[in-house]
């Protein structure tokens, strides 16, 4: 009787261990990504991000495959923005420094204009260089910018009738895109550079 109980108990342990092994080997990657995230997207993160074709600061046409070659903090805004864009871009630049210094991860801030009429490739290149040596500034035609914004489900619209001194309404999310993974997280304005770096490092580790 005791031998039967022992065999049954051993079988139960084997099932538990086996189940844990399956969970670790099959479910762990997705679970680890979910454990690192605070954001949530209806329909999944596959709905955010995707192919784009834009123009970099040197005037070269680039695609998402050319740009997202390392963990990238992607932000849509414009250089004439009087308030939120400089703060958000500075936060993203600081997060990149924290990632490198504290986690040994090379990453880049990516700034995509929503105002290509004023933000030419040259303007974006100068802005990016002044903000951070690793920042990538991207512009393009109205159609190219609209397609990139649509891929990331980000909203923007011109505000005001003055042809030179108008503002742009826009969302202020920063998207974390990983090479070969796509968009895996987004950050709000209240997330500080340390928080952005910590979650990014967690997601980079989970995705590798």
UniProtKB/TrEMBL annotation:
Cu cation binds at residues 81, 85, 170. Pfam families: SCO1-SenC. It comes from the Bacteria. Gene3D superfamilies: Glutaredoxin. Disulfide bonds join 81-85. One of its GO terms (molecular function) is metal ion binding. Transmembrane segments: none annotated. Keywords: Copper, Disulfide bond, Metal-binding. Belongs to the SCO1/2 family. This is Protein SCO1/2.
């Amino acid at each position: 009787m005791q031998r039967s109980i022992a065999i049954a108990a051993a079988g139960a342990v084997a099932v538990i261990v086996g189940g844990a092994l399956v969970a670790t080997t099959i479910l762990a990657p997705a679970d680890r990504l979910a454990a690192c995230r605070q954001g949530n997207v209806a329909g999944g993160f596959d709905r955010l991000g995707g192919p784009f074709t834009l123009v970099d600061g040197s005037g070269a046409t680039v695609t998402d495959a050319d740009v997202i070659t390392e963990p990238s903090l992607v932000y849509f805004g414009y250089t004439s923005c009087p308030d939120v864009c400089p703060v958000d871009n500075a936060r993203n630049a600081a997060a990149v420094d924290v990632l490198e210094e504290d986690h040994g991860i090379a990453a880049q801030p990516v700034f995509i204009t929503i105002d290509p009429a004023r933000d030419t490739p040259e303007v974006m290149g100068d802005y990016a260089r002044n903000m951070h040596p690793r920042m990538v500034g991207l512009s393009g035609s109205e159609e190219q910018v609209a397609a990139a914004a649509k891929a990331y489900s980000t909203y923007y619209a011109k505000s005001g009738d003055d042809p030179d001194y108008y503002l742009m309404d826009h969302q202020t999310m920063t998207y974390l895109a990983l090479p070969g993974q796509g968009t895996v997280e987004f950050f709000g304005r209240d997330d500080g550079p340390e928080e952005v770096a910590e979650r990014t490092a967690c997601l980079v580790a989970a995705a590798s």
